Amino acid sequence: MAADINAFVTEERIEGDADADGPLADATVAVKDNISTAGIRTTCGSEMLADYVPPYSATVVDRLTDAGATVVGKTNMDEFGMGTTTETSAFGPTKNPVDTDRVPGGSSGGSAAAVAAGEADVALGSDTGGSVRCPAAFCGVVGIKPTYGLVSRYGLIAYANSLEQIGPIAGTVEEAAAVLDVIAGDDPHDGTTRDLREVEGADPDAGYAAAADGDVDGMTIGVPTELFEGADERVVEAVEAAIADLEAQGAETTEISLPSVEHAVQAYYVIAMAEASSNLARFDGVRYGHRSESDGNWNESFAETREEGFGAEVKRRILLGTYALSAGYHDKYYEKAQDARAWVRQDFEDAFEDVDAIASPTMPVLPFELGESLDDPLRMYLADANTTPANLANLPAISVPAGEADGLPVGLQLVGPKFGEETIVRAASAVEER
Amino acid sequence: MSDTSESTDDAGAASDGADDAAAVDTEEVRHVADLARVRLADDEVDEFAAQFGDILEYFEALDEVPEVEREEELVNVMRPDEVEEGLSQEEALANAEETEDGFFVGPKVS
């Protein structure tokens, strides 16, 4: 089975603490291959790191094994997280277990596919612009992108630091929330994590799995028109049916408008590419990673190392990021993207004065066929229209199965206010119960 | 890499290209690739020039974004400057392609 869908890059185990009890004792967990595991190679889906063996584990990995979970392998992903299909991996594409002619979504496609195929109980992904929620939606499982600062990024190999969070993927909302209970919390190794005791309005004793009680009676759910426009009709139909069902369970729904999200994809890609161009400068072949057998000088050797080690999508993003930050273009692209980011944040803040959560399709499309979008990067970028706003606004979001269309899974996304994970877990568990 | 000072420098055609940035020629792609220290094959240069034109044209929509007041609650996170346990020299060098006497060996400078 594993070889069939190519969910794993490396299948090696890190045993969990046998004495631990709690919901994750004896659970198996698949870990995305950009999350460091001491002694087990961590490739980021790239030729550049094909032989890289981290000397330490990410905080999230230590927390999971301390809670009794056993790591069963490192999952396939778009190279450095750059993609929406898991096809840009140097280790070949992962197939969607629901329909093996289709992509599992990305970039955490291996993690979602492993859970959907029963090869692990739960999984970790990372979400920079939708990379946990997209594959969860395409594979018919649950994925959570936490509020920025809830989960430590120590040991996560960076793509775009200001946008990304590690998040859980599981078969049910409660299981995903139980993983979040274990991995959440501040970490002295990541200065961007927050101590919830010091965050106004946050609940330091939040229990995410306990919030999966399906009780949406009296909850107000905003439905933004902008995130339904342009989506595949079959997707819209399934999502609207799920929202109607929340109403039947006592939730109130109200149409809202988020005009800023029309610019979210542009803002996301400019910021993510700019950060990537800087982050990936570290891969020069000297301290770790692939190194070319170049006879050239310092600069020539670096350029050849990076030509050989990076795939096309990674090169594309590094170059576009370099371009967007260069003199004469910085104000035009990067500054405007930061304006758009602030606008998106403001839009959501205003909306959350009236609603508890915001519902939409996770992906505006059904899972692509393998190979369908590879030659058209812009088409792939546009598929991130509904997921990127939560990253730009630092907000928590969850994707939960809303049903099927033409036999393919459709995901419903719920976005919550900052550190409002319990609310979106509660609403998502009601979607699940219908 | 130590020499990153150039990476935010002029991208070439900025002086005459900032207003119609949607069109990207192969020379600009080569120049940016040079700044980013990524060697490209000739066919990759052609492909990227065409794709960058489409993508940058799409980014043009950012021009419609209003100026927004950016009020972020950012605070510095500090800790006492105390020596902590880190990687051993052996661990730090373990992934390097070439080492000598406990040091990394880089390519020749010129």
UniProtKB/TrEMBL annotation, chain A:
Say which enzyme class the record assigns. ligase
According to the UniProt record, one GO cellular component term is: glutamyl-tRNA(Gln) amidotransferase complex
Active-site residues, Swiss-Prot/TrEMBL: K32 (charge relay system), S107 (charge relay system), S131 (acyl-ester intermediate)
Q: What is its EC number?
A: 6.3.5.7
Q: Which HAMAP family match?
A: GatA
What reaction is this protein's catalytic activity? L-glutamyl-tRNA(Gln) + L-glutamine + ATP + H2O = L-glutaminyl-tRNA(Gln) + L-glutamate + ADP + phosphate + H(+)
Role played:
Allows the formation of correctly charged Gln-tRNA(Gln) through the transamidation of misacylated Glu-tRNA(Gln) in organisms which lack glutaminyl-tRNA synthetase. The reaction takes place in the presence of glutamine and ATP through an activated gamma-phospho-Glu-tRNA(Gln).
Which protein, by its recorded name, is this?
Glutamyl-tRNA(Gln) amidotransferase subunit A
For the region Disordered, what residue ranges are annotated? Answer: 82-112
TrEMBL record, chain B:
InterPro entries in the record: Asp/Glu-ADT_sf_sub_c, GatC
EC numbers listed for it are: 6.3.5.-
Say if the entry is tagged with keyword tRNA processing.
no
Signal sequence span is: none
Where in this protein does the record put region Disordered?
Answer: 1-25
List where Low complexity composition bias occurs: 1-24
Report the enzyme's class at the first EC level. ligase
Annotated membrane-spanning segments are none
Q: Which reaction does it catalyse?
A: L-aspartyl-tRNA(Asn) + L-glutamine + ATP + H2O = L-asparaginyl-tRNA(Asn) + L-glutamate + ADP + phosphate + 2 H(+); L-glutamyl-tRNA(Gln) + L-glutamine + ATP + H2O = L-glutaminyl-tRNA(Gln) + L-glutamate + ADP + phosphate + H(+)
A Pfam family name for this chain? GatC
Please provide the record's keywords in A-Z order. Answer: ATP-binding, Ligase, Nucleotide-binding, Protein biosynthesis, Transferase
A GO molecular-function annotation: transferase activity
Biological processes, Gene Ontology terms? glutaminyl-tRNAGln biosynthesis via transamidation; regulation of translational fidelity; translation
User: Cross-referenced Gene3D superfamilies, in alphabetical order?
Assistant: Glu-tRNAGln amidotransferase C subunit, N-terminal domain (1.10.20.60)
| KW Chaperone (keyword) present | no
Q: What does this protein do?
A: Allows the formation of correctly charged Asn-tRNA(Asn) or Gln-tRNA(Gln) through the transamidation of misacylated Asp-tRNA(Asn) or Glu-tRNA(Gln) in organisms which lack either or both of asparaginyl-tRNA or glutaminyl-tRNA synthetases. The reaction takes place in the presence of glutamine and ATP through an activated phospho-Asp-tRNA(Asn) or phospho-Glu-tRNA(Gln).
In terms of HAMAP family, this protein maps to: GatC (MF_00122)
Q: Which family does it belong to?
A: Belongs to the GatC family.
Q: Give the quaternary structure.
A: Heterotrimer of A, B and C subunits.
**Name of the protein in question:** Aspartyl/glutamyl-tRNA(Asn/Gln) amidotransferase subunit C
Q: Which organism is it from?
A: Halorubrum californiense DSM 19288
Q: What is the lineage of its organism?
A: Archaea, Methanobacteriati, Methanobacteriota, Stenosarchaea group, Halobacteria
